[in-house]
Each structure stands twice: as C-alpha cells, then as structure tokens.
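Supplementary notes for students who missed Thursday's class. We covered one full example, reproduced here. Read the sequence, then the structure, then the short commentary at the end.
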Amino acid sequence: MQDRRLIDIIAPNARNISLCILFSLLFWYDLFLPQTTAMVTEKISIPVQSPLSLLIEEFLPSDSFLGKIIGLGLYLLLCFGILRLNEVFSFIRVRTILPSLFCLITGGLLFSPHHFSPGVVVALLVLLSVFFSFKLLTEENPKHAFNVALLLFTAALFSFSCVWLLLVFWLFAYSSNILSLRVFLASLLGALVPVLYAIIGFRGSELLLLEYVQGSFDLLAVDFHFSLPEILYLIFVGLLLLLALVDFMLTHSQENIKPRKEFFYLVTLFISTLFLIILSVPDSGMLLWLTIVFGSFLLGRYFSLKNNRFTQVLLSVYFGSSLLLLFFS
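Structure (token representation):
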C-alpha cells in the first residue's frame, strides 16, 4: 500500500509536471531582476571558449532578457527530455518524475544567476545521443551509431571533452555485443560531419579553431568559485550520489538485462564527466551540466525504488537544504 502511494506521488502526471514548471520559475526568480555586473560572474572560470560559443554570444548576449528566456526554455526542455527518456526505455522500472525534479532543483541552484549558457545545449545534444544509443541497443541499426557520433561531435563544438564520450559509447556498444564493423564505421562517419562543417564554417579563422582544440587538452586549468553554502550543498549531494551509486551496484543484478545495460551506460557517462571535472579540463563548467543530468538519473532511481524512513529523511533534508540555499545564499 505504501509503495502504491509512492508510485502515485512520483508519477509523471499533469499535476506533477505543472508543479515542476512552477518550481523552475521559483528557482529562476532572478529572471526579472535588474542585472548587475556582480551577478553575472562565473562560478567556474572558462579559460578556453569555443569559437561557436563566441559567435553565438555576439548575436545573443547570455545576460540579455532574451538570452535568459531562451535559457529557461532550454532548461525546461532538458528536464522534459530526462522524463521522456525513461518513459520510452523504462530503465527505471517505475514511471517517475524524480530525475527531472533533481535536475531542475540542483541545476537551478548551481547555475544561478540564470542566463543562456551553451552548457544546456551541450546537455541536450548528449542526452539525445543517449536516446540513439538506446535505440541502437533495441534495433541494431548503424544509422543510430551515426546519429550518436554526430550529436557528440556537434556538442564538442561547444565543449571539446564530449569527444571522449564517443569512447564511452563504443564501450557501451562492445559490452552490449552490438559493436559491429558497420556500427563502428557509421560512428566514425557521424563524427566526421561536424568536423568538416567546422573547418568550412570557420575558414579564415583556422587559428582560432586550432587554439580551441589545443587549449582543450590542458589540465588543472579551471578555478572554481563556489560559496561555502554551495560547497556544503555539493558535498551533501555528492554523498547522496555515492549512496545511490552503491545501491545500484548492489542491486543491478535484479534488473532485466536491457534496462541494466542502459542504466550502466548512464552511470559510466556520469563517472566519465565527473572524472574530467576532477581533472579540471577547460570546459568543466559545461561538463557540470552533464554531471547533473546523469547524476539526476542516479538519484531519481534510488529514491523512486527505495521507500523507507531513511530515504524520506534524506529527501526532506535535500529539499530543505535546497530551499535554504535558494533564499539565503
């Protein structure tokens, strides 16, 4: 009876989706506040910025009102994409809105003040690549491998580290016994398309493109500027993620083979992006978006499948600390 009540509470119905949208407006309350120079300082420095990001910045200043509206729209689209991914593939065995809610809250707090960021575009592209990765597992059609590589290397035009995620995809395909020669060649061809478009599109600015690629290999290149309350919040969320990760490793054998492979891919992507952030690669700020997205799946699975007093206390502390950080940081 208690499990049935939990399923009803976390179900992605119209009421819960409407509440999520209201939550997003709450966390983006600074949308209509006057912008000041102090408000737009980056919490993670960006030592190397992609030429494409610079080009977009010329036409759409990130701190403009239009930029913030577009940023909010893409942010909501990202949360909806997280919801739809589990709706389509059911790698979490219950229908749940919690992964979207975790992404909405944690992302809303860590990326304030809010404005348009290429990081949300990167997150959308990589999330879509995950969709095609799962389609490949279902249909074993090489065109899905082409789409995966195409999306990852398009994302790499904003965040070069996304190139390394193609290795994670190949590992997923190999472990799932779907890495054929056709799949491998299709992914190489998909990766080549954005590269060619970048070379053609930035003809005359090749030096800028080369500096972007060379600078992306620097390590320990980023300074983090989180406040003490934000650091404490990150430590708490990190402990929740560790708990969720350990639970998955202990219980994943109880899952069916296909959902287990799919969720293990998400876990591998989470660990990979977190590892790159620990190395402080130049695009760590954009990779933080990916870490939050994949971490939200971990937290969503854990709290959707575990319903006891301990998890209820943890959820209460999470929501309470999130509200405290929102209003008093």
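Commentary. The chain has a mean pLDDT of 86. The chain has 14 helices and no strands. If anything here is unclear, bring it to office hours.
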